[in-house]
Structure formats: structure tokens, C-alpha cells
Design a protein that fits this description.
single chain, about 475 residues, alpha+beta, five-stranded mixed sheet, about 60% helix, rod-shaped
Length: about 475
């Protein structure tokens, strides 16, 4: 009743595998009897059927299956001996603790000895030889497979525990890195708010007062004062957006889409107008078709390119004639900012090129191209080509957010966690050693170098103890076939 209930509740795949195993066992025990007739055919057939019953029993009643292998070593059907290791090994692997498995193994060997001695009156003069033969069979077909099964049975929970511990350490490491990143970003946001926010607020207040004074005392300068006030206000709004992104956790809320009016004709015209009010001679050449509909990220990048180019003109070539071009066609947007050589005697400011580097990275993520450099006539040109619909942003290199884990004092990739990553396939890129290995390869860690204890502990001992069993079975079945 218990066996039938286990069969009903077992998965279909398991039931099919067990049924196939029973059929193969029956074929192995019965078909050779038609070719090589044994001395006691009825007993040989019964022994084959008895072996078929032991095949499913090894899964649900492993102790009984081990005890039941004792009579098989004494019976006349030598062909079923090939199935004995396949019953003993999985049965011993499922018995816990190992002491209980060894008790069942010794009991099976004792049953073999008792049955051999009990059958000696029916075979006078041959019982000593049969006792020796059955003893060798018990060692090779029961003891060695049981030893391999016990090794595998002890290794399986250890490997499972190792995997769980590795997953826990990886999750803890990820959470620690995320917490460190968020803490550092929050600190940076606080510093920016305290320093830049205060300065920009002062600029905005003084620009407002300057605008009121200029309206009364110097009306021609009122426009410049108004531009200063509005620019300071826009800078404050952009600073608040940046601070919000810095304080937002990576997995909390998705990054909002860029503003809908960024990168449009009206937006670029406003940027050009602001530069004209600041004293720059700028011409806008907008030939983007009206039917073109670039994505918000593409328009945002167009805005950034034009703004960066005009800012550089104000800093390094103030007063130089400048031309802004925005063209479209073949699913791509071409934007460029070109200025002529600065006026003689004009002091050119110094820069760190960080803005150009940021633009190049942003445009590369969108699948576009970016160029910036001086011209032969002394001018400077900044140009970018962007697709209308960029693909999903997938950086080709690890994002900078993944670096603070090591930069902020996280533990190095050595020790038990490194060993567990090497054994059970942890994150391949996170725990690599120093150096830059070739693509697709990496030097093995010290904890991954194969040694004999590690080879044996990895389950190779089970294979080593099975080899004598296989050799013995081949010899035994060959002798039986030749008879």
C-alpha cells in the first residue's frame, strides 16, 4: 500500500524512468537464459523477477533493497549480477546516517555467507570454493558500490549547503555594495546641495536685484540681468533633478524620461537666443524634417550637444561667429556646433574636457558617434550623429556603479567566498583576481587548483571504486557466455 501510494504521488518522469529500469532489468535477466540455459531455469527466472522488484525498492525503501541484494549473489542467474551495483549505489546514497548504510551492507554480506553455507549440503565438496567466489562478489558488487554511494550521499548535502551559502554571500555582497553606493551618492548629493545650491541661490537673488536696478538706471542692461536671473533659476532646477537621481536607489523608481520639449526646434532656438544675449554671434541651421520623430533620449542628447558646444564657445572663444546645424535623414540626426577662431587677444579659458567625455559616453550608449576637435583655421567643431530610435542602453563595459564595492572597502575576492564561487559557479566577473586575462579566460584562483583531496572529494572517488566492479562484471559475464 505504501509503495503504491508513493508511485501515485511520484512525478511522471520518475515513474517512467523506474518502469524503463524494470523493463531493462527483466530483459537482462531473462533474455540471456534463452541463449545460455542454466542448471536450474525456474530458480533463475524467479531470481530475475525478484531483481525487478528490487529496482524501484532502492528509491523508496533503500535499506530493504540493500538487504535484498544478498540472495542475488548466491542464485544461479549470473546475469542479474550486472544490476546489483546499480541497486546498491543509489540505495546507499539515500540512507542517512552513513552508519546505518554500513549496517545494511554488512547485513547483506552476512545474508550471502549464510545462504552459501546453507546450500553447502546440496553441493558437497564445492562449498568452500563457492564461499570464496561469493565473498569476492560481495566485495566487488556490494562493498565497493556501497562505499561510492555513501561518498556521494555525504557529498550531496555538503554541495547543497555550499550552494546556499554561496548564494547568501553573493546576495549579501550585492546588498552591501548597493548600500555603499547609495550612501556615497547621498553624501555627494548633500555636498552638492549645501555648496552649489547655496551659491546658485545667492546668484539668483542678486541677479533679481540687479534686474530691478538695471530696469530703473540702465535699461539697455535689463536684458542681460534677466538672462542671468533665468539662467540661475534653470541651473537650480537642473541641480534639483540631479540631486533627486543621486538620492534615488538603483532599484527603487525607474529614471524618468527626459522632458518632452528638450531637443525640439523651439528648445534649440531658445538656447541660441540665450547665447546671442550673452554676446555670441550664433546662426541656427535647422533642416530636420517635420515628419521626423526622434525618441526623447535622442532629443535630450541633441540638447546636450548644442548646450555643451555653446557653453564651450562662451568659455573659450567668446565673440567668435558660431554656427549650429541640426539635420536629419535616413533615420539619423546630425547635430554640430562650429565656431571660428577667437578674436586676437582674447583670453581662452582652460577646461578639463570632462563635458566632452560625458557627451561621448552618452552618445555611445545610444549607438551614435561623436567627434570634437580643432579646425585648421583655428576654430573648433563639435559634432554627433544619433539614431532616431536607439536600442536598449546596454553598456559594453561594466557600469561605474559596480566599482564602489571594491573602492569603498569591501572585502577582497579571496577566502571561502572565492572558493565557493569557483566550486559552484558564482559570479564570474565579480571575484576575479588581479591582472587583465584574455577575453573568455582567466587564471585559476589558488582555491580552484585541483589537488588529490579535492579530486576525491569532488566525487571522483566514486568513479575509482566503480572501475573494479565494472571489470569484474565484464569478466564474469564473458565467462558465463562462453560456457
Amino acid at each position: 500500500m505504501a509503495g503504491w501510494a508513493a508511485v501515485r504521488h511520484a512525478p511522471r518522469r520518475t515513474v517512467a524512468a523506474e518502469a524503463l529500469g524494470c523493463l531493462l532489468t527483466a530483459a537482462l535477466g531473462l533474455i540471456p537464459l534463452l541463449l545460455v540455459r542454466p542448471d536450474r531455469p525456474v530458480l533463475a527466472v524467479l531470481e530475475a523477477l525478484y531483481t525487478v522488484l528490487l529496482v524501484p525498492l532502492r528509491r523508496y525503501r533503500p535499506v530493504l533493497a540493500l538487504l535484498g541484494t544478498g540472495p542475488l549473489l548466491v542464485g544461479p542467474n549470473v546475469w542479474v549480477l550486472a544490476v546489483v551495483p546499480l541497486i546498491v549505489l543509489p540505495a546507499a546514497r539515500r540512507i542517512a546516517p552513513p552508519r546505518r548504510a554500513w549496517h545494511a551492507v554488512w547485513a547483506a554480506c552476512a545474508v550471502t555467507v549464510v545462504l552459501t553455507v546453507a546450500a553447502s549440503p546440496f553441493r558437497p565438496g564445492a562449498w568452500a570454493r563457492e564461499l570464496a567466489e561469493n565473498g569476492v562478489s560481495a566485495v566487488l558488487l556490494v562493498l565497493l558500490p556501497a562505499f561510492a554511494g555513501i561518498l556521494l550521499g555525504r557529498r550531496r548535502p555538503l554541495v547543497s549547503l555550499l550552494r546556499e551559502r554561496n548564494a547568501y554571500l553573493e546576495q549579501a555582497r550585492s546588498l552591501t555594495a548597493a548600500a555603499a553606493r547609495l550612501e556615497e551618492r547621498t553624501r555627494i548629493a548633500g555636498e552638492m546641495h549645501d555648496l552649489l545650491g547655496h551659491r546658485l541661490s545667492l546668484i539668483s537673488v542678486h541677479a533679481g536685484a540687479l534686474e530691478l536696478a538695471a530696469a530703473r538706471q540702465a535699461p539697455p542692461l535689463a536684458g542681460q540681468a534677466e538672462l542671468l536671473r533665468t539662467t540661475a533659476g534653470t541651473a537650480m532646477e537642473e541641480l534639483r533633478d540631479i540631486l533627486g537621481l543621486l538620492r534615488r536607489e538603483d532599484t527603487a523608481v525607474p529614471v524618468p524620461e527626459p522632458e518632452g520639449d528638450r531637443g525640439t526646434h523651439e528648445d534649440i532656438t531658445a538656447l541660441v537666443a540665450e547665447s546671442r544675449r550673452a554676446g555670441v554671434t550664433v546662426e541656427l541651421d535647422w533642416t530636420l524634417p517635420g515628419t521626423a520623430d526622434p525618441s526623447p533620449r535622442t532629443r535630450q542628447s541633441v540638447h546636450r550637444v548644442v548646450r555643451e558646444g555653446l557653453t564651450n564657445v562662451l568659455k573659450h572663444a567668446s565673440g567668435a561667429p558660431t554656427r549650429v546645424e541640426v539635420r536629419g535623414g535616413s533615420g539619423r540626426v546630425e547635430v554640430s556646433v562650429t565656431n571660428e577662431a577667437p578674436r586676437p587677444g582674447h583670453h581662452q579659458g582652460t577646461g578639463s574636457r570632462s563635458g566632452l567625455a560625458g557627451l561621448e559616453e552618452r552618445i555611445a550608449l545610444l549607438g551614435g558617434s561623436f567627434t570634437a576637435g580643432p579646425l585648421r583655421d583655428g576654430g573648433f567643431r563639435l559634432a554627433a550623429v544619433l539614431p532616431y530610435r536607439p536600442h536598449a542602453i546596454t553598456p559594453a563595459v561594466p557600469p561605474p556603479a559596480a566599482k564602489p564595492a571594491s573602492a569603498m572597502g569591501s572585502p577582497p575576492a579571496t577566502g571561502p567566498s572565492s572558493a565557493m564561487n569557483g566550486l559552484v559557479g558564482g559570479a564570474p566577473g565579480a571575484l576575479r583576481g588581479g591582472g587583465t586575462p584574455p577575453a573568455g579566460t582567466r587564471p585559476p584562483l589558488s582555491d580552484e587548483v585541483l589537488t588529490w583531496p579535492r579530486v576525491l572529494g569532488a566525487g571522483c572517488a566514486a568513479t575509482l571504486v566503480i572501475l573494479p566492479t565494472v571489470t569484474f562484471l565484464i569478466v564474469l559475464l564473458t565467462i558465463a557466455a562462453l560456457r
